[in-house]
Amino acid sequence: MPDDGYESNSEMQQIFSEDQRDRQPSNNEINWSVVDKADAARRIVTRKLLNGGKLHTGEDFERAAFVFQHGDTPDDYLLAHTLAMVAIARGQSSAIWIAAATLDRYLDSIHQPQIYGTQFHTKPDEPATQEPYNRGLISDAVRRQLGVPSQAAQEEQRKQSGAERPHP
Question: What is the pTM of this model?
């Protein structure tokens, strides 16, 4: 299903830009309590756009998927996954990675093992982990098709991410 000649929604573009900007501060310090509140407000506006039929393009749905990926409930993550799938169906091939990440985050939120390895967790004074993680279900060849790093690359990323605070 192509985008049928629709233009991407400019309000959704702005919401997505703010979402990403909040996660890339110039001083490398993120005030998560401020970001959490902004994320909640962005989800409310995005849901209104979605429910009002204002999102049309694959790009719109991919951006909305990122907004809900930064939610805080299993339903947020499952909605994010669904939006990523709509984006892919509308021809937005760049949404493939977020589709994988949203499924992993959803599985993690319902206490099931992730299957792609996109989610990392840290606790103070402990190394980063991806557990629980069902490493045997999805091959690296399939991960590559989804834009997800191989297990070896994930292990390197895990070792390097120990000092960073993970956040949805």
Answer: 0.86
